[in-house]
Amino acid sequence: MARTFVGWPAFPQAARETTRDTRLRENVRRATHTFRDKYAARVGERPDWQELRDSAAAVKDDVLRQLDRYLEQLEERVIEAGGTVYWAADAAEANRIITGLVAETGEREIIKVKSMLTEEIGLDNALAAAGIDTRETDLAQIIIQLGDDLPSHIVVPAVHRNRGQIHDVFVSEMGKHGRPAPPDMTEDPNSLADASRAHLREKFLRAKVAVSGANFMVAETGTLVVVESEGNARMCLTLPEVLISAVGIEKIVPTWRDLEVYLQILARSATGERMSPYVSTWTGVAEGDGPGTFHLVLVDNGRTRALADPVGRQALRCIRCGACMNVCPVYERTGGHAYGSVYPGPIGAVLNPLLKGVGDEQTASLPYASSLCGACDDACPVRIPLTDLLLKLRHSIAEGGDDGAVGEGRDRGRGGPHPVQDKAFKAVGATMEHRTAWNAAVRAAGLAGPLVPERHLPGALGGWTESRAVPPVPKESFRAWWKRTDGGRR
Questions:
Q1: Is residue 471 domain-resident?
Q2: pTM here?
Q3: Tens digits of residue pLDDT in 439-470
């Protein structure tokens, strides 16, 4: 069974561990800086870049306002083109549908296109439990799968691994699952890529069933789109007899003209390329061309939870480009695993609480995994206001909202204020209302200053100092200083 993020520690604890890993930090820093430099160069070539961002955000907002209509239109077109459509409310239902479809074919090994949605729902483990072996075909996903690792980036899941580590994984693991790595393989990227191609070739030619996701779904024609850099996905989409695509319900664009906007911004934002080397599209089935059977599984898994929130739904604009991670100073220092999800970085800090709710410790910690510097807002090609959403999620958590909402009208529940908090604030408020009592409290604080610990406060106050240093307590108040110095003139 593949590793999962189930039971992963909360971000503060996980980040303490990952920030100590100097090799991981160097790998992530080198990769993210390369991506951001290429992104800046490619964006600088487009004088209409801001207009493209405006258009992309507007199209997504229109889709989210009329999602039911576009989904119904998509379903009709897919069926007309010879495909079959299924609806899955959550991960369990999606896994059950897909596992059943594969089991009906009698195949025990299938190939798979890189898909964050299938990672999100844990599809590989669901298939493994049914005795079905799933082989990843994206180079980065091969590294993750062979190394029994977890993805740490949306676009490049193995960004935390360097060439030497990848070489060692290929040497030790490839032969256990098919063609072994050649004895003359080196750490050169071309040599590693050649080894993966040879390993995959026999799987492509043998596979009868493939599973994919999709970057976009075009409602007007029922067309699905996969964007990639290697060509391995295209092999999965064309060679097998049966193709099963699992896609989040928010991945719709209304028309091909709208798709043009996203194809211009996705490659630039994700990998700093002017255009993705491979853009594969398919509409249902066609006799003698590609798979003879096509199944589309539309997955909710918390998306309607986010959609119902008028503020939080903006996160569903996300096109999974990873640009926000490449500029995030927190992600650069912690890596993706610290977030405990297949969606790391700023978008993960927003998306995970929206999809899952903020009732558990791991999810509730994510909105605080940000310096709020705003770099992610500037980088996002669909103008998701990530810092605003992070602040609103923090407010929701502080108020005890356990439904993942970032808007108004939440009830207090799990993850709310400490029971001492309200009493403490009331006591402070009552003291501040009486001048004599307040002055006495200020003088007492000055006298007690030397007794306050430099690093951590005791008891119920300890949570505040988990990630903050206690500021020094001055011996006299500002008011006393002002009076003593005649307004600062002496």
A1: yes
A2: 0.86
A3: 888 888 777 777 676 667 777 667 667 667 77
Distance, in Å, from the CA atom of 446 to the CA atom of 411, rounded to the nearest integer, reads 39
CA distance 8 to 352: 14
DSSP state string for 370-390: ----SHHHHH-TT---HHHHH
Q: Residue 399 pLDDT > 70, yes or no?
A: yes
Amino acid at 331: Y
User: d(Cα 52, Cα 45) in Å, to the nearest integer?
Assistant: 13
**Tokens representing 250?**
């928010």
Contact 78, 296 (CB under 8 A): yes
Residue 480 lies in a domain: yes
How many CB atoms neighbour CB 297 within 10 A? 25
CB count, 10 Å around CB of 57?
Answer: 19
Which is nearest to 466 in space by CA: 365, 381, 356? 365
Are the C-beta atoms of 381 and 424 separated by less than 8 Å? no
What lies within 8 Å, CB to CB, of 297 at 6+ separation is 85, 86, 87, 88, 94, 97, 98, 244, 245, 246, 247
User: In terms of Cα–Cα distance, which of 460, 389, 386 is closest to 425?
Assistant: 460
126 domain-assigned: no
Query: Which of 478, 470, 471, 467 minimizes the C-alpha distance to 10?
Result: 467
Distance CA 105, CA 98 (A): 11
pLDDT at site 455: 63
DSSP letter assigned to residue 294: E
Rounded distance, CA 192 to CA 171, Å? 10
Burial of 22 (0-12, 13-18, 19+ CB in 10 A): exposed
Residue 302: band (very low, low, confident or very high) from pLDDT cuts 50, 70, 90: very high
Three-state DSSP at 258 gives helix
- In 3D space, the residue among 255, 271, 301, 269 whose CA is nearest the CA of residue 383 turns out to be 269
Q: Report the C-alpha gap between 361 and 354 in whole angstroms.
A: 14
68: exposed, middle or buried (C-beta count within 10 Å: 0-12, 13-18, 19+)? Answer: exposed
Distances (CA, A) of 468 to 149, 169, 234, 450: 32, 40, 50, 18
Q: Give the strand pairing for 216-218 and 252-253.
A: parallel
Decide if 235 is inside a domain. no
Q: Please give the tally of structural domains in the chain.
A: 1
Can you tell me the distance from the alpha carbon of 465 to that of 484, in angstroms, rounded to the nearest whole number?
33
Which of 141, 52, 128, 71 lies closest to 95, judged by CA?
128
Domain that holds residue 471: 420-484
The answer to whether 160 touches 337, Cβ cutoff 8 Å, is: yes
